[in-house]
Amino acid sequence: MLGEYRIAGRRASEIAANIEGAVGSGELEPGQLLPPMRELAADLGVNPNTVAAAYRTLRERGVIETDGRRGSRVRPRPATTTRNAIRVEPPPGGRSLAEGNPDTALLPPLAEAFAAAARSHDADPVLYGEGQLDPEFARLARERFDADGVPPGPVAATSGALDAIERVLAAHLRAGDAVAVEDPGWGSLLDLVTSLGFKAVPVALDDDGPLPEAVADALAGGARAIVVTDRAQNPTGAAITAERAAELRAVLGRYPRTLVVEDDHGHAIVDQPLHPLAGATAHWAVVRSAAKAYGPDLRVAHLTGDTVTVDRVQGRLGLGPGWVSRILQRAVAHLWRTGAVDPAAVARAYGERRAALVDALARHGVTARGRSGMNVWVPVPDETGAVTRLLRAGWAVAPGARFRIATPPAIRITVSGLTPGDIESLAAAVAEAVGPMPARSYG
Asked: Splitting the chain (443 residues) into consecutive groups of 10 residues, what average pLDDT does each group show?
């Protein structure tokens, strides 16, 4: 059943750690059947309840799944194997459009921002017990939320958007709870939800955001939280409109105890207005990252939300890293204060590339989506075949498997590195690789 690998351990935690480690190292492969609980208990000389507890822990962590009498097996995509591990490297001399990175030419220089932050630190060093937030960072962050109609609430800083979302989910949910997520959606978020022991419930979406009926079905089915992307949705580029926001708020109003988490990572790179869902329920958070507009390596995000949620996030942060470096916060505040990024110009640059690619694909009979942000989503009949053929043509694109749960095959193309001269040759290569596809919804 397990080949040459032998599970070890006497306590439930030891057995669970042994199996999880073997999955992470590849000694136990996805889909591999595990021994029945009584059989493993006899082999290890422990009580069957001990093995049952170990298996339960592994299910909650997203490592294994149990299917009644068919037994327990390693999940096809265990939490220890991230979706980002599905990587496609370009051939020698080829181009990569797979990683979702911003155009470095659109990122601002950071030298002066960090010099200013360092001077501030030299004049007024931050010591223990001084609080988690730089006052100017908090004030400017809150002003930007206010300008976009986000309800009043305290501000917190985290090490990136995913860190913020993890802390918000952990502040309210327990292992086994269901979380509604966009499908297709951000692969790292899908991995996070599973790794925390939550059940990911896919919610279909179109260019205007999550479909209200799909959200209603997920909440009626017991989902205790929902994570949505306001604009520049990864991978489809969807952006929630005012009409869709009103429909979603009406649905959420029927489930007032639902935790609503909004990822607005595209806030400084898009020209679509924000239509927040915040406040439709008792507990909510809106998360913004500096990554796309200012640089992924800054590792700074900020969030606001209801008082209970933000207090819990800050309390748990205080028991771990303590705070996000105030030097980093001051550098980001300097970038905001000096207008280092022109959101309209950045949005226009990405928008022109997306529109040019979508239009060129349409001329070749290929349907694609890309309403906002830096990605274009292309449905395909054969995902692996399309990716392989594009590699042969010199283009590396992201397979849709990194982003999908139940939606049909597709590929994601990041437009950040494209020039006008690339568009036609890329569109022709995509058309050759995938063939014409009829228009269809994401779900």
From this structure: 81 89 85 91 94 87 78 74 64 88 96 97 94 97 98 98 97 92 96 88 97 98 98 98 98 98 95 97 98 96 97 95 96 97 96 97 96 97 92 94 92 96 97 69 50
Amino acid at 47: N
Using the structure block, give the residue that is written with the tokens 């209603």.
Answer: 216
The answer to whether the CB of 228 falls within 8 A of the CB of 209 is: yes
Give the integer Cα–Cα distance in Å for 89 and 278. Answer: 39
Q: Which amino acid is at 159?
A: S
Phi and psi, residue 8, nearest 5°: -130, 165
Q: Which of 261, 113, 245 is nearest to 179 (CA)?
A: 261
CA–CA distances in Å: residue 364 to residues 144, 360, 389, 430, 442: 42, 7, 17, 9, 21
Judge whether 231 and 240 are in contact, CB under 8 Å. yes
Q: 257: closest CA among 210, 288, 219, 286?
A: 219
**Which residues are within 8 A (CB) of 325 and not within 5 positions of it... i.e. 6 or more apart?**
none
Task: Taking the CA atoms of 89, 94, 99 and 101 in sequence, report the sign of the dihedral they define.
Answer: positive
Residue 48 CA: distances (Å) to CA of 45, 59, 60, 219: 9, 16, 18, 36
Contact predicate 210/203, CB 8 Å? yes
pTM, full prediction: 0.83
Hey, what are 425's tokens?
A: 């040759």
Inter-residue contact 102 to 416 (CB < 8 Å): yes
Helix (H) or strand (E) holding 329: helix 326-337
**Which helix (H) or strand (E) is 203 found in, with range?**
strand 199-203
Q: 80, 48, 47: which is closest to 63 by C-alpha?
A: 80
CB 40, CB 7: distance < 8 Å = yes
